[in-house]
Amino acid sequence: SRLKELEQEAHFVAGEQFLTTSSNQLREILFGKLRLHLLCPRETFPRTGLQRPPSTSEAVLNALQDLHPLPKIILEYRQAHKIKSTFVDGLLACMKKGSISSTWNQTGTVTGRLSAKHPVSWCPCLCLN
Questions:
Q1: Is the CATH number of domain 2-93 1.20.1060.10?
Q2: DSSP 80-92
Q3: Residue 54 needs a FRET pair 20 to 30 A away by CA distance; which of 33, 60, 82, 115 works?
Q4: Residues of the chain with CATH 1.20.1060.10
Q5: How many CA atoms lie within 13 A of 43 on its CB side?
Q6: Residue pLDDT, tens place only, 72-119
């Protein structure tokens, strides 16, 4: 899958295995190992927590993506992971006998339209654009 490809690519570019969803491990690689914050001193990096380590937010990764390929890979991974966890995993939980079907209500709305539940039927592909 695309998530696995992005994960392998991130490990290759970073030169080590790490948990792609871990902000702490990513922070250690970006700012500890690669020291990308030193290559871009004009940027102010938001800090998080009591010890105030640099953030790995989308804004920071966007600022760093021209300096090294890893931030761009992580941004793409996060987007693909969000879509998978929001849409695909939820629909797979509703699958019965290899198909997904909603429960349709004929009197589900005030205006007389049909409505669906378990899962709600709408096109998640609109969110991909």
A1: yes
A2: HHHHIIIIIHHHH
A3: 82
A4: 2-93
A5: 19
A6: 999 999 999 999 998 888 777 777 788 777 777 888 778 878 777 776
